[in-house]
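Let's practice the habit of predicting before peeking. Look at the sequence and jot down your guess about where helices and strands might fall. Then scroll down.
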Amino acid sequence: MSADFFRSRWLGQVPLDRLFWRDMLLVGTMISMASSALALVLLGLKMPLGLVLAAPFAPVPYTIFLTISVWRTAEKSGGAKASLMMLGSALWLIATVVV
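Done guessing? Here is the structure:
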């Protein structure tokens, strides 16, 4: 990913709908699911426990970045829809990190 990808999201230059639905819920969830699947594969291959445990937590910084980006963009947008997306992003963060 390029620096422009991260910068545009951090600065709120990406439409909130795209950031929330595509970047966070769709792509972010797929990345989290893939890292969890990788952990299961590594466990099946009897890889070191540290590596197995690190795999599902590897996308956590990206997950936090997306959540904060949604909040920053939603604060600029304002309104009930933005507030719901802020709540949704917080719940998504909890779900992807805990589950």
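How did you do? The two ends are 26 Å apart (CA to CA).
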